Amino acid sequence: MLAGLLARLCEQQDLRALGMILPAYLSDLGSEQDRDRLRSVLHMVHAARWLMAEEQQTLGEAIALLGERAGASVAGGVSSRGG
User: Fold this and answer.
1) Cβ distance 42 to 51 under 8 Å?
2) In 13-32, which positions are buried (b, 16+ CB within 10 angstroms) versus exposed (e)?
3) pLDDT digits (tens, 9 = 90+) for 18-72
4) How far apart are alpha carbons 63 and 67 in whole angstroms?
5) Rounded to an integer, what distance in angstroms lies between the CA atom of residue 50 and that of residue 19?
């Protein structure tokens, strides 16, 4: 879900949101600290209302999913992204 949102932000060249989200997304290896950092960044972007309605909705869903998945990473860790 989050990977698709990031792809759309790349297409739209939304550098402000990408600049906030990408560092936390790419460094999410699944630890609780990584998830907390990612969740915090997603909340900041969501609260800033920088995104269009559809992306804002997807971001809200990603935040909720991240909160529900105590033992798993929304970003999926580096290995599942092929990096």
Assistant:
1) no
2) ebeebbebbeebbeebebee
3) 999 999 999 999 899 999 999 999 999 999 999 999 999 999 999 998 888 754 4
4) 6
5) 12
